[in-house]
Amino acid sequence: MKTAISKEFEAIVGETNVMASEVDRHTYSYDAAVLDSEMPSLVVRPENSEALGKTVKLCNDNGLPLTVRGAGTNLSGGTIPHPGGVVVLTNGLNRILELNEEDMYAVVEPGVVTTSLATEAAACGLFYPPDPGSQAVSTLGGNVAENAGGLRGLKYGVTKDYVMGVDFWDVNGNLVKTGSRTVKCASGYNLAGLMVGSEGTLGVFDKLILKLIPPPKTSRSMMAIFSSMKSASETVSAIIAAKIVPATLEIMDNFTIRAVENFRHAGLPTEAAALLLIEVDGHPGQVEEDAVRVEQICREHGASKLKVASDAAERNAVWQARRDALPALAKLKPTCVLEDATVPRSKIPAMIQALDEISQKFALTIGTFGHAGDGNLHPTILTDKRDHKEWQRVEKAIDEIFNRALELGGTLSGEHGIGLAKAKYMVLETNSGTLDYCRRMKSVLDPKGILNPGKIIG
C-alpha cells in the first residue's frame, strides 16, 4: 500500500520512478564494500534538475535520511543507505550537457558514466584522464563524491584536479552554484573543492563542470619482470627519484599475476614474483628518452626481462589484464576485501614488506597490486566472512594495515573514500579537533543530519 510520503515523491518524479517493493529496496541496500546491507524505505529516481531539488527538500522537510547512488561501485560503504531512509538514484540524470572544444571543458549531470565522457571527449580530440577501475560503470557524480583516482593518477592526478565547478542542492532545496567555466576562478569560498570527496554528506550534485586536456601525442608501454616484490618496489622508488613521471606505474605480486592469468589468459609470466606495468607518454622525443631511462633503471634494480608493447592491441591487452586484478581475485574466495592503503612513494618498499608480515602474522591470503607510482596499494584479502574465526583475524589485519600505513606517513584512502568502513580510523589520521570542526560544519549545513548520515565522520 502506498504511503502518503510515497505519493508526494510520485508527484515530483512520476509514479514509475518511486520504488518501494522489497526487491527494489534490497537491490539498493548495499554497494561493493564488504559491509552489511541496510534496507531503505523508498528508492526515488529523478529525471531532471527540478525534480532532484524538490526530492532533496521533501526528504529534509520530513527528516528522511537521503543517500545518493550512482552505480553502487563504492568500496567503502559510501552508498549503503541509512535504515529506513531514501535512496536517490542518478541514472536518470545522465546527460552530457555541453562539451566545449574551444575552452576544453564539459558540463555533465551526475549520472553520466565515466567512460561515456572519456569517449565523447576523445571523439573531439580531447582527453579526460581520471580512470578508476570501475570507469565502465561508475558515474561522474560518484567519482567527484569520492575523489576517485585510477591508473593514470601518477602523472595526471585524480578527479579533484579536473573539477572546475559543482552546482548542488542544499537540504532546503536551494541550488548552490560554485566554480566557473574559466581556467581561473577566485570568486568567494572554494565550495567546489569542499564538495569533492564529501561523499554526499554536504549537498546533492546537480551539474559538474569538468576540465578536459589535449591528449598525449604518443606513448610507450612496457612490462618489467622481477624475482622479488622487494626489487620491484625499490625500482618504483628509483624511477620517481630519477625525476621521471610515467603516466602509469603499476605493480602486481605473483599471487595476483596467477589469478589474472587464469581469469584472462593474457600471457602474463606466471613464474614472476612481481611485475611492473609502466607507460610513459607525451611528446615523441620525451617518450623515447624516458622509456630508455626507465628500462635502464629496471635492469639496474634486478629486472630479469623487459617487454615493450609492439602495438595498440598488445598495449591494451596488458592494461586490461591489470584492470582485471580485482575481478580475478574476487573469484577465488567467497569474500574479497579490497583495501586502499596509501603511503609516500618512497615508502612503497616498506609498506609491501609490512603487508607480507601482516599476511603471515594473521595466516591470511593477501594479493597485492595497485598504483605503486603514487603510493596507492590495494592489498586484497581473500577470505570467507562466514568463517567467524578467520573473519576476526581479517578485522585485526585491516586494523594493522591502516596503522602501518599511517606510521609510514600515509593515509587511510588514496581513492576509495572513507564511507562507513573507515570512519572509525579517521581520528588516527587527523585528530579529535579536526573531526569536531567537520561535525560543526555539517551540523550547520545539514541541521537534521539527513545527508548520507554516518559516513566519513560517523
User: Based on CA inertia axes, which overall geometry fits?
Assistant: globular
Number of helices: 16
Low-confidence stretches: none
Helicity, as a percent range: 25-40%
Number of strands: 16
Quote the distance from N terminus to C terminus: 34 Å
User: What's the architecture of the domain at 96-211, going by CATH?
Assistant: 2-Layer Sandwich
Strand order of the largest sheet: 13-10-12-11-15-16-14
Cα-based radius of gyration, to the nearest Å:
22 Å
**CATH class categorisation of the domain at 96-211:** Alpha Beta
How large is the share of residues in beta strands? 15-25%
Mean pLDDT across every amino acid position: 95
Largest sheet: 7 strands, antiparallel
* Class by SSE composition: alpha+beta
Briefly note the CATH topology name of the domain at 96-211: Uridine Diphospho-n-acetylenolpyruvylglucosamine Reductase, domain 3
Written overview of the protein:
With 458 residues, this protein is of the alpha+beta class. Among the domains are: 4-89, Uridine Diphospho-n-acetylenolpyruvylglucosamine Reductase, domain 2; 96-211, Uridine Diphospho-n-acetylenolpyruvylglucosamine Reductase, domain 3, CATH 3.30.465; 216-328, Alpha-Beta Plaits. It contains 16 helices and 16 strands. It has helices spanning 4-13, 22-27, 49-61, 114-123, 140-146, 153-156, 191-195, 229-241, 254-264, 284-300, 312-323, 325-330, 348-361, 388-407, 426-429, 432-445; strands at residues 18-19, 42-44, 66-69, 86-89, 96-100, 105-108, 163-169, 175-177, 204-211, 218-226, 248-253, 274-282, 305-308, 335-338, 365-371, 376-383. The chain has a 7-stranded antiparallel sheet, sandwiched between helices. Strands 5-6-9-7-8 form a 5-stranded antiparallel sheet. A 4-stranded mixed sheet has the order 1-2-4-3. Helix 8 packs across helix 10, helix 8 packs antiparallel against helix 13 and helix 13 (348-361) packs antiparallel against helix 14 (388-407). It is globular, with a radius of gyration of 22 Å. The model has no long low-confidence stretch (mean pLDDT 95).
